Amino acid sequence: MRRWSALIGALLLTLVSALDVRAQSGGPTTAQYSAPTKSTAAWTSGTANNTALTVTVTNLSKVIVTLSATTTMTGGTLNFEVDDGSGTWWATPATRTAGASTSGQADTTFALSVVNQGWELDVGGWTQMRVRLNPQVTGSGTATIAISPSAAPAEPQQTVSQPVAANLNGTVIGAGSAGTANAGVVTVQGITSMTKLLVTPDSVALPANQSVNEAQVGGVAPVLDACQTAAKSYASFNQTTTTQILGAAGASNYYEICSINVVTATAQNIALIDSATAGNACATSPAGSSGFGGSTAATGWNFAANGGLALGSGQAVVGKTSATNRALCLAQSSSGQVSGGISYVVSTQ
User: Does a cis peptide bond (omega within 30 degrees of 0) precede residue 135?
Assistant: First the structure.
């Protein structure tokens, strides 16, 4: 009978403590979400060249851009660009998702015409995004631009207060001796036996099925991705012929690509290549960079006009130079405009 009394007392003690913590913490917590403000602009032939509508996208994942154009507009171009906080703006692909075209085509620029069009842009990792007007509007119409950022949920704030002893109303049942079982003393597990609570292993060797070593997975130290452990850098390209993007990586070093985005204005082949000789656009003994195709533009990606790709999230390696100490180039098969950029790390892996 005394044993049952001890067990019931321990359960009541646990319940009262939990209720008291909830009361002192002010009840359940509520996650707070912050919705970014939609930004708009109306541009006409009187709007200055290079006027831009800019929004801050720090810690956001994407933005939606919409265009509404009146029937008397005859010209002008929108330019989609992002900034990593350095003040330098890079062309970035915007995917058509709504309006006149829902083809999924990626645009870094868009010639204004009498259409309503919507785009979606990935802005993860960037600090600002803008739509810039260049060249300016012609005709008597108006282009209405709207940018709607998509917010990531804010981390909910939780407050928990420590209850004071008086609120617990606890009573110790019986007096026990260390290392000796006692029917009047209840253990953490709620039983009166000497079953121990495993906090640390009894010896250097881990007991069977005890997963307490967080530095290993399956008993083996994990190999972390270079794009997560090394400092990332960024490089942009804006070219009409095969061009060197990065000089030689240095002895024992590779360029490891974390993400790449590229758009071509004309139909052509494009390849990411590298060479042991820097400064001559990889003309000397070029090799296809690992993960990106062959050693010439002809053996690279085959894009239609205004086509391109966005590969990689920046969190994992998607390709690398074929050997150490190589210069990195973007090869193209014709003279059409090619724009985009890469994020990368320098690594010895």
Answer: yes
pLDDT digits (tens, 9 = 90+) for 230-264: 999 999 999 999 999 999 999 999 999 999 999 99
Q: Which two tokens stand for residue 299?
A: 């053996």
Mean pLDDT of the chain: 82
Give the per-residue SS3 of 308-322: EEEECCCCCCCEECC
Considering 118, 133, 150, which residue would you say is the last residue of a domain?
Answer: 150
Which one is predicted more confidently, 167 or 147? 147
Q: Which of 158, 172, 143 is nearest to 65 (CA)?
A: 143
Task: With residue 6 as reference, give the H or E element that holds it.
Answer: helix 2-24
User: Phi and psi (nearest 5°) for 226?
Assistant: -60, -30
H-only helix segments in the chain: 2-24, 165-168, 226-229
DSSP line for 59-76: T--EEEEEEEE-TTEEE-
Other CB atoms within 10 A of residue 167 CB: 14
Domain CATH code at residue 72: 2.60.120
Q: Rounded distance, CA 304 to CA 310, Å?
A: 15
pLDDT, residue 183, reads 62
The reply to whether 295 falls in a domain is yes
Question: What does the pLDDT read at residue 27?
Answer: 47
In a domain, 31, yes or no: no
Q: How far is CA 306 from each of CA 57, 111, 155, 171, 325, rounded to the nearest angstrom?
A: 26, 12, 39, 77, 33
- Whether the predicted pLDDT of 22 surpasses 50: no
Of 123, 150, 177, which residue is a domain's last?
A: 150
Are 340 and 235 found together in one domain? yes
Q: What is the mean pLDDT of residues 11-17?
A: 56
Name the 3-class secondary structure at 206.
coil
Which residue range(s) make up the domain with 145?
40-150
Q: What is the DSSP letter of 306?
A: T
Total count of domains within the chain: 2
Paired tokens of 40: 């708009």
